[in-house]
Predict the structure.
Amino acid sequence: MKIVSWNTNSRSNKETLENQCKFLDSGSFDVITLQEITENSQGFFKDHYKGLHVASSFDLSKDLDLLKRKRKYGELIISKTKFETLDPYRIDIPFPERVLSVKLSNGIEIYTTHVPPGSSNGVIKVQHFEGLFSYLNRDREVQRILTGDFNSPKAELPNGDVITWGQKINKVGNVRLSVNPKWKNECTAERWDLAERGIIQNHSTLGMKDVFRVLNGYDDESYSWFINRRNISIGRRYDHIFCSKDLKPISSSYIHKPRLEGLSDHSPIIAEIKI
């Protein structure tokens, strides 16, 4: 199976959407998972991929009026093979539209998620991680592929450890628990750290593995999103593909050309997985 995961940065300009589709079409992917889709852009993608099987989190919402402001983003899953769309409300998270999942005809479940950024959503990010982990932990034997923009980690270390947004690292490399003062009354640093770490680092407890790291190791400093601070570009590896332990990753990489061409602020991650 060849799969791609991409945060499309809520782009709605027709030319940009056309170029996003050109990139996706060029990869001959079996499964496409997209995050930060809007009500407007979902229609474009649905029309472009009308010959394939498409699921949209907007179509599953119980109340579209709620999908405004902080909740205006959704997900899409596009597949060459038929699937059964799974109920998003079975996962206990604040924004149910931020996880979309389907069960392919071969029995494999595909999940894609866009974890709300903590800088603007506070404890909602923590609750999202906790709810998703709790659900996936109920049956670790189900064969799954989990993709998305997780807005985590802050950093990764060569030994496989991660620095979460419940931690702070100083100039000499010392790490301590710390949470943004804006949210300290909502959530402890320890809870924040554990929530992110549950999936980002401890995914093996869910019977899953990080496809990119399994193949490329922790010496590979690839990133999928960048922020400029004081004229310094800081990279984050926010976009991930995880798969069940019984599935075999064959290849995985980040494709930076679409981001550098301005099609999104995220680089898509692609993977080939032997089913």
User: Anything to note?
Assistant: The two ends are 7 Å apart (CA to CA).
